[in-house]
From TrEMBL:
It comes from Ideonella livida. GO terms for biological process: lipid A biosynthetic process. Keywords: Glycosyltransferase, Lipid A biosynthesis, Lipid biosynthesis, Lipid metabolism, Transferase. It comes from the Bacteria. Belongs to the LpxB family. Condensation of UDP-2,3-diacylglucosamine and 2,3-diacylglucosamine-1-phosphate to form lipid A disaccharide, a precursor of lipid A, a phosphorylated glycolipid that anchors the lipopolysaccharide to the outer membrane of the cell. One of its GO terms (molecular function) is phospholipid binding. This is Lipid-A-disaccharide synthase. Pathway: Bacterial outer membrane biogenesis; LPS lipid A biosynthesis. It catalyses: a lipid X + a UDP-2-N,3-O-bis[(3R)-3-hydroxyacyl]-alpha-D-glucosamine = a lipid A disaccharide + UDP + H(+). It is an enzyme of class 2 (transferase). Its EC number is 2.4.1.182. GO terms for cellular component: membrane.
C-alpha cells in the first residue's frame, strides 16, 4: 500500500510504453515499483513484457509502432484520436502519477494535458536533445514533473533548463551479464562448435525491415561466398515473421540463415559479429561486448529532416556514449551490401581489434549498471512524496 495525498490505498499508475524497447524498459521499471509497492496497479498502453508483470493494457503497444515522420504522418489521425481517448480515460481514472516511457512525440502531448489537469507526470528516457532537436527541451519542461535518465550526463543538462531529473542507469546494463555466456547461448540456439556466427538484426519496426533488412540479407550472401561455413541468425520480432520470410526467400541462396523467434539476446551472446540497425539494439550489442556494423536507412524525407537537426557526428549509441567512432556506421546511400560485407570482414579478420572494443564496452557496462529498477522506484517515490 502507498500513502498518496494522505490516504493509504493501492498505488495506481498510468503508463504508455511503445515498441519493443519501451516495453522492456517499462517492464523492468515496473518490477522495481512492485518491489516497493507490491499492490501497485499500472494501466495504459504496453506490450507483452509489461503484460507479464500484471500491467493492464487498454490498447496494445503496436498501435504506437511507427518509424520516422513519413509513417507518423500517414497514421497521424489515428494516433491523435488514440491519444485523446487515452487522455480522457486517464483524467477520469486520476492515477497517482503518469509515466510516459520514451515515445516522446506521442507522450509529450499527453503528459502536458495531464499535468495541466493536476496529474503528476514522469517521463522515462530523456529525449536525445544532446544529439538533435534540442528545442524539445521546452516541451519537456512543460510536460513533465520529473525525468528518469538512462545516461549519466543528462540530469545536469536538464537542470540548466530547470527540469528535475535523476540518473537511474540503464536497465539493460543490469539485465545483461558482464561475462557473456557465449557457449550457453550457442547451445541454446543449436549453434555448437567453433564456426563463426553473425547475427542479423534489421530492427523491430516494419519500416526498418523494409528499408534495412534487404541490405543485411544481401550482405550475408556476399559474406557466405567469401567465408564458407559462416552461419547467420536473424531474431524475428513477434508479428514480423510474415514480412521477413519473403525477404529471406528473395535474397538468400547459399547463406545459412536461421530465423529465430525473438531471442535477440541469445543471438548477440552467441555471435562473433552483428550487422545491426541503429537503435537500442546497438547498446545491447555493446553490452554483450560484440563488434558490429551499424546500418541505418530512412525514407529520404525523414533522413533530410533528421540530418538538418543533428548535432553529433554519430547516430549509434555506442559511438555517442564513447564519444568516438568505435564501430562503423553505414547511413542512407552508404548502406550497401558491399560496404556491409567489407566492414564485417574487417572485424572478423582482426581479433585484436575486437578485444580492444570488448574492453571499451565493458567499461561502458560498468558505468551504466546502477540497479535501475530500484533507483526508478526511489525517484517515483520522491515525486509522490511517499
Amino acid at each position: 500500500m502507498a500513502a498518496v495525498n494522505g490516504a493509504r490505498r493501492p498505488l495506481r499508475l498510468g503508463m504508455v510504453a511503445g515498441e519493443a524497447s519501451g516495453d522492456l524498459l517499462a517492464s523492468l521499471m515496473l518490477q522495481g515499483l512492485k518491489a516497493r509497492w507490491p499492490e501497485v496497479q499500472a494501466e495504459g498502453i504496453g506490450g507483452p513484457r509489461l503484460l507479464a508483470e500484471g500491467f493492464q493494457a487498454w490498447w496494445p503497444a503496436e498501435r504506437l509502432s511507427v518509424f520516422g515522420y513519413v509513417d507518423a504522418l500517414k497514421q497521424l489521425r489515428s494516433l491523435l484520436r488514440l491519444r485523446r481517448e487515452l487522455g480522457d480515460r486517464l483524467l477520469a481514472e486520476r492515477p497517482a502519477v503518469f509515466i510516459g516511457v520514451d515515445a516522446p512525440d506521442f507522450n509529450f502531448g499527453l503528459e502536458r494535458r495531464l499535468k495541466a489537469q493536476g496529474v503528476r507526470t514522469i517521463h522515462f528516457v530523456c529525449p536525445s536533445i544532446w544529439a538533435w532537436r534540442g528545442e524539445r527541451v521546452k516541451t519537456l519542461a512543460e510536460a513533465t514533473d520529473h525525468v528518469l535518465c538512462l545516461f549519466p550526463f543528462e540530469p545536469a543538462l536538464l537542470a540548466r533548463h530547470g527540469i528535475a531529473a535523476t540518473f537511474v542507469g540503464h536497465p539493460l546494463a543490469d539485465l545483461i551479464p558482464r561475462e557473456v555466456p557465449r557457449d550457453a547461448a550457442r547451445q541454446q540456439l543449436g549453434l555448437e562448435g567453433e564456426g563463426e556466427v553473425v547475427a542479423l538484426l534489421p530492427g523491430s519496426r516494419r519500416s526498418e525491415i523494409t528499408h534495412i533488412a534487404p541490405s543485411l540479407l544481401k550482405a550475408a550472401e556476399l559474406l557466405a561466398a567469401k567465408r564458407p561455413g559462416l552461419r547467420f541468425v536473424l531474431p524475428v520480432v513477434p508479428g514480423l515473421r510474415g514480412l521477413l520470410e519473403p525477404l529471406v526467400a528473395r535474397h538468400i541462396r547459399q547463406a545459412d540463415v536461421r530465423l529465430l523467434e525473438g531471442q535477440a539476446h541469445a543471438a548477440l551472446a552467441a555471435c562473433d559479429l552483428t550487422l545491426i540497425a541503429s537503435g537500442t539494439a546497438t547498446l545491447e550489442a555493446a553490452l554483450f561486448k560484440r563488434p558490429m556494423v551499424v546500418a541505418y536507412r530512412l525514407h529520404w524525407l525523414n533522413h533530410l529532416y533528421m540530418r538538418r537537426k543533428a548535432y553529433l557526428p554519430w547516430i549509434s549509441l555506442p559511438n555517442i556514449l564513447c564519444q568516438e567512432t568505435c564501430v562503423p556506421e553505414l547511413v542512407q546511400d552508404a548502406l550497401t551490401p558491399e560496404a556491409l560485407c567489407e566492414q564485417a570482414l574487417a572485424w572478423l579478420d582482426d581479433p585484436a581489434r575486437c578485444e580492444r572494443l570488448a574492453q571499451r564496452f565493458d567499461a561502458l557496462h560498468v558505468q551504466l549498471r546502477q540497479n535501475m529498477a530500484q533507483k526508478a522506484a526511489d525517484a517515483v517515490a520522491q515525486v509522490l512524496g511517499a
